[in-house]
Amino acid sequence: MRKNKILLTVLSVIMIISMLATAVGCSKKPKTDGPLQIIATNETYKELFDKFTADTGIKYEMLSMSSGAVLSKLQAEGANPTFDVWFGGGINDFINAKDLGYLQKVDFKAIKDLNPLFVDKDHQYFSKGMTIVGFAVNNDIIKEKGLKSPATWDDIIDPKFNDEIVFSDPSVSGTCYAVLYALMQKKGEDYVKKFADNILFLGSRGKDPIEKTVAGECAVGITYIDGTLDGIIGDANVSIVYPTDGIPWTPEGVAAIKNSPNAKAGAYFVEWLYTDDANLQLLAKIDKKGAVKAIKPGLKDVELDYDADFLYDLDLTEYASKATEYKNFFAGLFK
Amino acid sequence: MIDRKKLLSNTERVSQNTLSRYIDMIGDHALQFLVLGGVVLFIFYPLFCVFLRSFHSADGFTFSQYAKVITEESTALWRSVFVGSFTSVLCTILSVVFSLFISTRRGWQKIIFTALLIVIMVSPPFVSSIAYIQLYGRRGWITYNLLHLNIMPYNQWGIIAMQTISFVPINALMLNGLLAKIDRSVINSARDLGAKAKDILKDVVLPALKPGIIVCLLLTFVRSLADYGTPAIIGGRFRTLASQIYIQFMGAGNIDKAAAMNMFLLVPSLILFFIYRHFMKKMNSNSSSRRQDAHLNLPLHKSGVIGWLIMGIGLLYSLIMTLQYSSIFLSAINRTGSKIFSFTTEYIEKVFTYNASTLYRSLLYAFIVSIIGSLFAVIFSYYVERRKVRFGSVFDCIATLPYMIPGTCFGIGFILAFNSAPLKITGTALILIINMLFKQLPTTTKMCAASLSQIHVAQENSARDLGAGRLAVIKDVILPGMRPAMLTCFIYNFTSSMTTAGAILFLVAPKTLLAVFKLFDATYTGEYGVASVIASLIIIVVLLVEGLVFLLTSYLEKHNVSGTRTYQKELW
Would you say the ipTM is above 0.90? Predict the structure, then answer.
């Protein structure tokens, strides 16, 4: 009798665990041919991918690369892509990749828990977070030039800031396209012209603005904001300002590549990422920002670290369709 | 009476001889096919794929990319020509001055300045441009803190200045070679006849340098056209065609347009190539191969104003370079952004936890590329320059193509060419090694061609007359005679493999990560401290390896281990 009770308990525990497992909803682990090949925006995500290996037994190898370069690589590789997962980078490059037919459709249960704003309607790309944009202000330069530290977008088109702004080329940096899109939508062409007049240096890399501000080459850099800036700022007298008249932003993409060597494992990675909340919590810790909460609103122990009311509205379809027009307009201001 | 036995053995020997001659001929053809075919397969074919790609669009064949380039990028093209012209003139002047300065040093001065020249040959990409901003930017240590100037380095003049100073070492090295060949007895007799030092400079030394000067002008111009790193980092609003190509590849992901833009870069470069070939022949033909004192006996301080000017500029350039490299080394151990020096090992630790294995791998690949690459270059130039194979100048032109286009394009070409069966090698170590080898071939073949003219044809012919086969001539006459050139090739190959990023950016896979890729990545993501650590490590390691190789070869020369030298003596 006692023996039976123990057996029953063991059985029910097993049943509950297996039910939980199905409830958590990961499909069956796919077979792999060699390690999963991941291209990410930087190496700090190693910890997250290590957890993937620990959870699933699937080994991985990673490389860091900017998203524009990934798009070039995909086009050159054509029918035989050499990597399986594309992790991080401006969403517009993901939209382009989808239009060129390089992304794989991934369906899984947890999609229903994600904010639809951040998920492609054909389930080909997803978001791992958002990049929000503000000012990096070099206080030494502000003081030396007798300027007032800017608080709004309107402040920085003041002629006093002539040759004191560093921005990156929107056709290179997804972050800077987000700024251009928001400014064209909300402030209009005249504003953007004045903004362009004040630009000292139009970078060809996304990190140029923060770097140049830290080096004291300009008073204000238009930069993405997250915890990793601390490492770049070091000991420089630079502070981060969230503009009070609106914060431009862009989702950061995640996608599994179509026809890749481990295409099934790539899709499985995407499913794994969103299915267990612990993964997203770890991601928030690595990124040092809570934006992932906006993507999966039910996520516990992660809080948004910005005031969502300040965010500019963003319509992804228009965001992609306006890209060429806006970029050409902007490029015309620099001829 | 005929000795049957003897006759039999004679015929046997004859048939054996025909057989070995046959084998020799096949071997010779095979070797020739290998080097010429290699150049076609690994340079011409990938670039042809890029060429085809420039007509590609979603709807099939099109000229629209070219129309786009002409309407959208013509400013960038003219800017490239503008920058290239200025850079090539300024850089050539500086190179001549600096090589005169170094050649006339003696004793400890010679050692110090030659060492400096070797250090600045090892210049990891991107980091130099950032060091330039740190030193001479709007808040630069020199311009702002020391001289209290507020100058803008982000324009064409910044690019020209940066390219000028960074292209000097390789030019100076070539000019030094020419200066070493000037017959010292001519200088001495001129002096005996009462010529002043400044007249010797004007009438003997500079005329001897003339073909070298023209070669410098051409090479620098082409190199400036293809340089994307400098304008991308310090050009700001000022974009050249090469930096626009870089943006299309790395940022906009528009490879069709980038492919078309590359074709525009090739046209002027190809024209210059044939002019270059003409002068290069001249330069090699009027050289003397006599061993003589490497020191140029021309006291600069007695050469009037020009002499003092050369000394002043030489010292100033050395100072600028010393500052630049010190700033890289310091940034590796100084917290980024601190106003006064604040020591940290943070960046060093980060490099060793994440990237130690990439450094070993880089060393291994660089070593393989250097050994195979030097051999390949010697054999290639032997067939093209000495054996005068048919269409030799066409093959030579193909071998020079990688010099004329930005590395990113050469890398994309490799993916386009080698990502499908039967030649699918993407993602492997092999593709990286082959790519590096052929990317460096333009320079190494030129080095070998110059050195080949020092080996007399007679030497080769007499070996043939004594019964040596064609392959034996390559093995026992050409290779030993080319040993100094192979050493130079080895050093060039090794340095470039460790420091050239453009072509491999698209070819590395996770398991073939290289240190220079990490360097590029660290610069790209703004981690200047980490970038400086990797750059410093690369510089130190390259210098160590090259020092060792140099010591080893000079030890072998001295102790005559291989015995080739005695063989050569016997031959004469």
Answer: no
